[in-house]
Amino acid sequence: MGELFNIEKMKKSISKAKRRSTWKTVLISMIVIVVVLFSSILANGFITPLLASPVQNAFYQYNQVKGANEFIGVEEFYPGILGGENYYKKYKQVGDRIIYSGEGGYGYGLFRDEVLGRIGSRSTGFTVQMDKKPSYNELGQRMMTFFYPQLNYDVVNNDLLLLNEIANDKLVEMALSFDKGYTSSEAMALIPKDITKTWLWVNHIEQGGKLYSINYDENQNPLGKLPLTLNGQDAYGFSVINTDGTFADQPAERFISAIDSGAKFNSYWQQEFQNLKENIAGEDDKLSVNDLVINGIVVTGTAESLKQLQNLPFIKASSLGVVIDKY
């Protein structure tokens, strides 16, 4: 009977039972945490690519239709929790060489937007197009300018004349604006065969679209309309060569496919794709190769080879881009 009421023994038994219960709870909790954590990692690994796919596809399509003679050469991927960020570097194809032309990034997922929260940008380190003066990007590279065939300008760039001042050990990028719109095959046939054609500028302004800006005096009184020019980085078009310099297979068809695909993806660029499709396709709203009107072209080569283009009647304007060493 005495042992039945042994208080010390009872305390030890209760303490031992509590320890067992505590360790059991801890073990179960750890198992639950591990299972939840492992399941979350698996779920995130499955969900994040689904969130990334439409944005990445839209981004790829966007870079196939915009930016004269540029392509994405390097891309870095940083997936996170239910989203991520991708960063890229752009390059230009100039003759047999490629040249770095800038970089950027975009986000995707539940906690990031495509523009990574940017509300704008500002730079005081380079000039902008004004009074036909050269324009430069943040790397100090000269940027090309296009002139619309359907507009009348008081002055246009004739940078083909600058070829006389460029040594023949340099490779030159040049944007040519045509006197009128041409088909893709017509535009390619206009340029001598021994000159490298890299990129075609597609007209994206619908009939009657706004192509003028209003000029104001110092008192903000309107002085009249100024015809717009187009920076090469903002131009729509497509590359006719691959990144290795070989001729691209069905480039016009790929341009149309990129617009159609981009218009379907829910992304930051979707509305721009839809507007582009609507403006180019016309009244039937069906985009085809026959709808493409080529306003200009980008060519590359040595200064001597590009001199063949001087004084050709179909060239309305010419704008010098980057100039680099041949080797």
Automatic annotation (TrEMBL):
Domain Sigma factor regulator C-terminal: 163-322
Domain of life: Bacteria
InterPro entries: Sigma_reg_C_dom
Keyword tags: Membrane, Transmembrane, Transmembrane helix
Transmembrane segments: 21-47
A matching Pfam family: Sigma_reg_C
Name this protein carries in UniProt: Anti sigma factor C-terminal domain-containing protein
Taxonomy of the source species: Bacteria, Bacillati, Bacillota, Bacilli, Bacillales
